[in-house]
Amino acid sequence: MLVNTQHYRTIWPTALIAGGQLSVSIIDQTKLPHAFEIVHISHLAQMVTAIKTMQVRGAPLIGAAAAYGLALAAQEDSTDGALQAAASRLRLSRPTAVNLDWAVSRMLGLMLQHPQNVRAQLAWAEAQKICDEDVLQNQAIGRHGLDLIKQLAPNDARVLHVLTHCNAGWLATVDVGTALAPIYAAHQAGIALHVWVDETRPRNQGASLTAWELAEQGVPHTVISDNAGGHLMQQGLVDMVLVGADRVSASGDVCNKIGTYLKALAAFDNGIPFYAAVPSPTIDWSVKDARTEIEIEQRHGDEVAHIQGLALDGSVQNVRLIPANSNAANPAFDITPARLVSGIITERGVFSPADLVGSRVTKESMGAK
Ligand code: MRU
After folding, report:
1. Domain that residue 289 falls in
2. 67 pocket-lining for ligand 1 (C-beta < 6 Å)
3. Fewest beta carbons within 10 Å, which of 132, 168, 243, 283?
């Protein structure tokens, strides 16, 4: 997408290291919205840190980042043992989004089939392929989501109000976004819409990232506190809830950023459609019962206890919110059961959880291997 009229992806290979080796460039998402900074990553260990600290984040992007992490690892040591160890480190960096595990398995499977001397070269090409596929999938999600938005948009001059949680825009992917792809497509098609942006405590991906993205692309939006959604729905000010996902089970349960479940409950209670937009690598066909089978990442309580923002003197500061002797817990994701989900928007079309359970949509029909 465009940043100050220049096109960026969130991750790309760069020839920076001496000796013809490659590094990886990322947009440091911990600095947004107050600074736009590019960071160069030249070792596996740095990529693991970037994923853990959320310099890169969002399910599809951490998949792409893990793929490049393995390319860096292969550049350092392409023996079977070294690559397997690198894969384990990447898998452990963040447990919930299935895209990371998916990308690591795909990269490792490919490299181990080939002789050591070609592994690094193959890995760079495969990581690039994963990125290009992600962009195409998201563009297709945008087209299918646009059809849906056209159906939901009021026939009169009223604006369509969409509520979103966390950041599932281009920053969460390689480019274009998942939940925000239909919003960008609708905005470009001239449909009058407005986005309610949940701030998304504790990491504030909505307030910091979604709001920044939408502002850059000129999409009308308003940041709200996480607790405001239910009230706005009761007031008739939300026409649709549209979120991304970190993992969708084979029965259509949606695992997404903590707080998504509460929005889905409120939407259900108010008869408002709730959609998740996901590329096919986010569907985990091996998971039947999301509540017991998906590991929910438990992040450090410091993220709840502190908040980062721009101080009056223009510096970015991190301040404590809670008493020094209080504990803070930080589960990072929750499960929205399929019964609350109106539909899942994928690159192959929109389907309901019932389509999954009734086998109208299968792993094979979604092109998954
Ligand atoms: O912890 P994050 O920021 O990596 O989590 C990302 C999300 O949960 C997003 O909401 C998103 O829907 C999944 S990525 C498109």
Report:
1. 152-357
2. no
3. 132
Instruction: Indicate the range of 108-112, 174-178, 360-364 predicted with least confidence.
Output: 360-364
- Positions of E strands within the chain: 2-3, 6-7, 11-14, 23-27, 38-41, 160-164, 193-198, 221-224, 240-243, 247-249, 254-257, 274-277, 283-284, 306-310, 316-320, 333-336, 343-346, 349-351
CATH code: domain of residue 81: 1.20.120.420
Ligand 1 in contact with 57 (CB < 6 A)? yes
Q: Using the mean position of ligand 1's atoms as its centre, give its distance from the Cα of residue 227 in Å.
A: 19
DSSP code, position 323: -
Alpha-carbon distance values, 178 to 137, 160, 299, 335 (Å): 9, 19, 24, 18
- Does this model's pTM top 0.85? My answer is yes
Catalogue the active-site residues: 246
Question: Are 116 and 11 within one domain?
Answer: yes
166-194 pLDDT tens trace: 999 999 999 999 999 999 999 999 999 99
Number of compact structural domains in the chain: 2
